[in-house]
């Protein structure tokens, strides 16, 4: 039992310090957003990718993280817009 608890604590410590992912770039955010969009919107957004990246650059880090964590459009719509 002590061994399991020790492993759990070490894992929690490792996850909380120094092992976090690098912050996603706006190009990553836009690419991910395009991936989860309905097919009828993908081409339009992809065609205006530079504008979408510029808009993303004005967003807070929390908004960008939320967009990257979204697995569908419903989740994405819940993200802060600023």
Describe the structure concisely.
By secondary structure, the protein is mostly helical.
3D structure, described in words:
With 82 residues, the chain is mainly α. The chain has one domain. It is 70% helix and 0% strand. It contains six helices and no strands. It has helices spanning 2-16, 26-36, 39-47, 49-56, 61-69, 73-77. The longest helix is centred in the N-terminal third of the chain and has 15 residues, at 2-16.
Task: Report how far the terminal alpha carbons are from each other.
Answer: 46 Å
Radius of gyration: 17 Å
Number of strands: 0
Low-confidence stretches: 1-20
Biggest sheet: strands, sense, closure?
A: none
Mean pLDDT comes to: 79
General form: globular
N-to-C series of helices and strands: HHHHHH
Number of helices, counting only DSSP H or I runs of 4 residues or more? 6
The structure class reads mainly alpha
* Count of domain modules: 1
């Amino acid at each position: 039992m002590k061994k399991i608890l020790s492993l759990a604590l070490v894992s929690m410590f490792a996850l909380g310090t120094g092992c976090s992912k690098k912050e996603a770039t706006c190009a990553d955010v836009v690419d991910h957003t395009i991936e989860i969009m309905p097919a009828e919107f993908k081409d339009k957004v992809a065609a205006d990718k530079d504008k979408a990246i510029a808009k993303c650059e004005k967003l807070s880090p929390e908004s960008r993280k939320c967009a990257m964590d979204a697995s569908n459009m419903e989740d994405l719509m819940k993200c802060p817009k600023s």
